[in-house]
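Replying to the earlier thread about multi-chain prediction with a worked example.

Input:
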Amino acid sequence: MTLDLEHFLTVGALLFSLGLVIALSKRNAVGVLMGIELMLNAVNLTLIAFSRFGASEQPIAGHVFVSFVITVAAAEAAVALAMAVSIYRTRETVEVDQLDLLRL
Amino acid sequence: MDGAGVGIAFWALAFVTLGAAGGVMVSRNLLHAVLLLIVTFIGVAGFFVLLSAEFIAMAQIVIYVGAIAVLMLFAIVLTPRTIRDNSETAMVGPAILLGIALGTVFLFVIYDTEWAVVASDPALSAEDLGKALLSTWVLPFEIASVLLTAALVGAIMLVRTSEEEAEDDA
Amino acid sequence: MSEIVQSEPFVMNIGPQHPSTHGVFRVKATVDGERIIDAEMVIGYLHRSMEKLAEERTYTQNIPFTDRTDYLSSMSNNLGYCLAVEKLADIEVPERGQAIRVIMAELQRVASHCMGAGAFANDTGAWQTPIMWFMREREKILDIFEMTSGARLTCNYMRIGGVAFDLPESFEEEVRAFIPAMRQTIDDGEGLLSGNEIFIARARNVAVVPHEMAINASLSGPMLRGSGVAWDIRKADPYCGYEQYDFEIPIGYQGDAYDRFIIRIEEMRQSLKIVEQALDGLPGGPHSTEVPLALRPPAGEAYARIESPRGELGYYLVSDEGPSPYRFHIRPPSLINLTVLREMTVGGSIADAIVALGSIDIVVGEIDR
Amino acid sequence: MGPLVTDHWYDLRDLSNISREILEGIDKVAPSEVAYIVAPVLGFVAFFLIFVLPSQLIVGVYGERRIIGRMQARRGPNRVGPFGLLQPIADAIKLLQKEALTPKTADRAIMWAAPIFFVAPAVLLFATIPFGPRMIFADIPVALIYFIAISALPVLAAFMAGWGSNNKYSLYGAMRVVAMSVSYEVPLVLSLLAVVVFSSTMSLQGIVLFQADVNLWLVFMMPLAFLIYFISVSAELNRTPTDIAEAESEIVAGYLTEYSGMKWGLFYGMDIGYALAASAFAATVFLGGWSMWGLEEWVPPWMIFIAKTHLFYFVFIWTRGTLPRLRIDQLMAFAWKFLLPLAVFNLFLVSLERLLWVENDIGDGIVFAFAAGNLVASAAAAYLWARLLGYRPERIPTKPRLVREAGGYVPVEGQTGGGE
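Result:
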């Protein structure tokens, strides 16, 4: 059976919606971050699929954009987890729905 | 992209990746969730290999599995046992509905539009990526390095305890 | 703002069953991450109540007990006990007996330091290699002991008033063959470890005992000399004719684990020097004076101390003119050296605590008696 | 260098002839899918016979114990079979019949999965390593990053093992293994980057061919990269002097404390597998792989390659036999403050030379001049950087002071200063 764009896009779409559900429904901050990472991965997958199948004069653009998404995802994960740890230090909880006060 | 092997590989990877992603949603223990997330990352790296983007696949494993997953493990270990369960908030119902709705919209768009598809594989190698990064996209490349440094310093500043600061001032 | 919560410390057992506690000895360490906040020592796993048992036996029957307190240096223990009884009963030991006792005590010091330095190298991670070299030489010493006293480890060789048997004919030739091989092994061990950057990084400035704390805690042996205090019973209060022999005492610079290691290595060389001198001038004559089996020393008390490989080993005897001592007490250098373990380890990491414990070179038999 | 290797099946210098003959035979007989399946199986059997059997079992398990035995003035295993050669099999059988315990409070799923997750990457690592001009499983253009990516997986498996066992000592082991591997991956990647910059290709076969036609092994070209690679890889593999993850004297057996029976056997066996994979990688990248300045025409190239792997593996055994262990914070400081700057310096030096060489296309002879220059520059850089970090070996007295008379405290004259 020959693989084409639709196959990869469906996997990307399913992964993205699953990531969204996880990000919205998890109680623990690390769980929310996992959802976000999943969504970013789904985006990477669709980008590479388009770069492989799509008709464009510069197919390498997909790869470049994915490498930037990976860099930003790494930086964002670092800062988000640092925040989670420091919030845990001061509030003894990382439950997302308990962190609703703006002042410490 | 034909041949029996590639088809089998695609369906196997799809099953593993989406199964693991579902596991992240369902599993009760947060650590199991992170390990299943790692399996998802490896699955996505497998997809990149299927799409003949080897360098991105390897980068994905080095950075996502090697660094971000380890970061999450550290975060879980540093926030001790009380919050180890992976339970959902009250918003789980609407979240699932929104997810399903968004999924159907995506699938409709995918199968409805006529994609301008080119059958031949542009066979992009790491060399092309390197040349592209350092020729047309050199500015975002430099900004990305600045971003990484900022994130590094920011993360360290956030997590430093008072004694470490006192240590440095003394 | 609520008090900032640290990762909560938990109690960790460097328990009785642990590869590097040199015996059945336990440290309850309260640990925060790698740092040790508080260390509480638990001893007594090897308590055999020797001091009580000794009160029912005659003076000669107590000698085998002393072998089993510090099972790594039984000759030194015998010597200490016999000196105490001789002081109590005012018995004279002939020249030859004293010289043999010095040779045996110094050979025992070399064997014990082989074990101490080797185990310390193990604790810093130089897995098995240095200890295997030292063990190979220690075996030769134990063979020599077996040749003279009949037993390798718990020799029970010394008697009140001298030694049990005279030296066998091949003794001198065996010891003279052994000494150059031992010197070569000491140089190899020192070459492998002392100059090694990783060993220095692991042992220098670790478990530092300043000289005031060493003196106040009445430490003795390599622990005291490590902090730069030049104190050795063989020089300060000579016994068995130590004043005739020419040897030096090695002392350290900062009192850290590294100093104690190089001191033990140097002490082995000095002991070999003493053994050679003793062998050269070995006097003739009887090896011990006749002492009645049921010795009844006059009422009174006596305290004799010797420089055992671990420090000042003292025997305190009280006699009520009965055949067995009224009170028999041992001053265990390992236990007293152990009291500073808490100051040495608190604040450091677990790896340093293990190195600190290794540098004290304890023997649990002597601690728990 | 016209290849002397003929295409006959009996020419053992290139084992791919035999496999090609067999596969063509199968193609004549059976449908194409069967050959598609038989090829990897054939590859695995050949790989097992020429590499896993002699290297993993004989040199890895048996050889290491005998060599360390010789270093420690004792004889290694010599009871089982002739000269003790069957010792690895005896070990395996013993481990197989031992019970693999799982503590009641342990996290069963993670503890069960950890050995599997530890074993899989060990076999994957050999996919891109060339054994000969045509003897390679998968010659992908990103082979070098493939090796780095796959060597990140066992770290997670070790963490799973440590975390799943739910015991304090293994928790320490798990945290140490992760913290150390993450911080030693940076100098490792930078030193391999220098290799890629100089040979301008990431495929391992390409690097070996580059070293063959330039007639210079990369170890002479960039000795600093080789040294940094060796230290970082011995840290990744938890081998002495950096075996703090299973520091026997401190945290009993680290993340392996709760493992027994064949589960522990898998970890032990695969530790040797990873060490061999790292030595095979070093042999390919730094020691010229299967090329030996023309000798590979006569001697089968895969034999040359395996000999070099064993040579590098011997250095691992040597350090394991003699060096003590560093503390976790010293290791971290060493990685970030010493290895990383030197790796960056080496990368800068090598890319400068590569630019010089490519821009005004001097002949290949210049490479030897670069090598000499690099050797001196690397030694100087390492020494000066160490002194900058406060490494004064002459300040540390290795002999105690000798005193004749017993007396009180003898103060130390002059400040002696501590070590690093």
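Chain C touches chain A through five residues (CB under 8 Å).

Feel free to reuse this layout for your own posts.
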